[in-house]
Amino acid sequence: MSDMNSMNREIKKDQLRRQIVPASPQKDEDSNEIIKRARTKVKKKRFKIFLVVLLILSAGAVSLYTYFKYCQYTGYSVIWEKSLNEGSYVGYLTFGSNVLKYSKDGASYIDSQGKEVWIQSYEMKSPVASVNGPFAVIADQQGNSIYIFDKTGNTGVATTVLPIIKATVSAHGVVAAILEDSTSNYVYFYKRDGSYLDVKIKVLLGGKSGYPVDISLSPDGTQLIGAYAYLKNGTMNGRVAFHNFAEIGKSVGNRLVGGFDEPYEQSLVAQVRFLDDTYSCAFADNGISFFSTKNALSPELIKQVPAEDEIKSVFFSDKYVGIILNNSEGENEYKLNVYKSNGNLVFTSGFQYQYTHADIDGNLVILYNEDSCRVYNMSGRLKFSSTFDFPISKIRGGRLPNTLIVTGPQNMKEIRLQIGGQYQ
Q: DSSP string covering 206-241, please?
């Protein structure tokens, strides 16, 4: 009997085993493949949507770029206008987001919305100013005071014993100043707080080095380019010299690492400028010279651009150099040439306009006089030409591609350029 019960139990177990159906491996594989294909399909769909959106955005960006590049504005409207503090106005320089206004009795920094960020009072008989990146310097020519500023205000004041001829500043706030003595001139250096740096260059007026005409510091403050005038065979000649004040320059006497005389025989160099830490230029009456200091101990003249006619104006930014010449050929009275910092030509354009100032601001070349302006882009296209019913002292680009900030002695306006718009 027990054997029968045992047999029945085994039969029931066997029936139960047969009723349990195991999961099919093939079905698991099919299910995973379906999920995988679904995910791949979703990814492809998302990628196609991304490509379409990217294509639309790219087309919009190209269209917008083309519009701003080729359109010519014929009118403007005033976005805002603000009155400025009156004073014995001398000039404006591009500084930070807008301009540095300086006069005989003080200076102020005005931002891109016409707000005076700071005001500094002083007394100078003949203020001269220079800007390099976030720092500015104002010196009293033939006086003895040098004021140093950043975008937050005055950082220091340097007082000299000898009269000041010129001053320049680096993008780190180091100041170099030409000081005049009866028998020699000196280039002294000062920190941003106005304290004296124990570095100087002595130039004998009757010596081989010549009379210093202009100087410029590199943005990092370690290099100085100088323009000098000296007498040779009864004729005044120009010279460009480079000094290095980094550690590497200690190995050279007077830290003089390079000098160029030959390009300026019977010619004078009126102005020099470091455009960035590598490239610099010199403006002479016979043309423009472009230099490179990639080799800190051996500056190189990389391009000499001769002046085809008399030079009327020179101007520059950290990326471009502009020159305006009298045009003896053709119907236009003047010729505008713009170059990159390495001396390569960007564009050339003839024009008739009677300007008094020329600036480069970003990718704009701005010519203006006391009541009108002409604005070119870096393709040489005339973007805007207008006459204003208010006095102009400075024009620069606004916050948007189709805006300009126009500053006068006592007021500032931001204007929006329009196609076929009315003058307001």
A: TSSS-EEEEEEE-TTSSEEEEEEEEEETTEEEEEEE
> Buried b vs exposed e over 277-287: b needs ≥16 C-beta within 10 Å?
bbbbbbbbebb
125 CA to centre of own chain? 30
* Residue 214 identity (one-letter amino acid): D
Residue at 282: amino acid letter: A
Burial of 136 (0-12, 13-18, 19+ CB in 10 A): buried
In the numeric block, which tokens belong to residue 121? 């009072």
Alpha carbons 423 and 114: distance in angstroms, whole number: 21
E strand or H helix at 373: strand 372-377
CA pseudo-torsion sign 389, 394, 395, 398: negative
Burial class (CB in 10 A: 0-12, 13-18, 19+), 250: exposed
pLDDT in tens, 173-211: 999 999 998 888 999 999 999 999 988 888 876 666 788
Token digits of residue 159: 């007082």
| DSSP code for 51 | H
Torsion (CA) 423, 357, 396, 156 in degrees, nearest 10: -140
At 13, the pLDDT band (50, 70, 90 cuts) reads low
Side-chain half-sphere of 414: how many Cα atoms within 13 Å?
16
CB–CB of 325/287 below 8 Å?
no
User: What are the residue ranges of helices labelled H in 102-171?
Assistant: none
Sign of CA dihedral 164, 170, 172, 176: negative
Instruction: Tell me which long-range contacts 330-333 makes (C-beta under 8 A, separation of at least 24).
Output: none
Radius of gyration of the chain (CA): 34
- For the segment 342-392, what is each residue's pLDDT rounded down to a tens digit? 999 999 999 999 999 999 999 999 999 999 999 999 999 999 999 999 999
What are the DSSP E strand ranges found in 261-356?
Answer: 269-274, 279-284, 287-292, 300-306, 311-316, 320-326, 334-340, 345-351
Q: Give the list of residues 6+ apart from residue 188 with CB closer than 8 angstroms, or none.
A: 160, 176, 177, 179, 196, 197, 200
Sequence-distant (6+) residues with CB within 8 A of 89 are: 101, 103, 393, 409, 410
Angstrom distance (rounded) from CA 216 to CA 223: 8
Q: What are the two backbone dihedrals, phi and then psi, of residue 15, each rounded to the nearest 5 degrees?
A: -65, -40
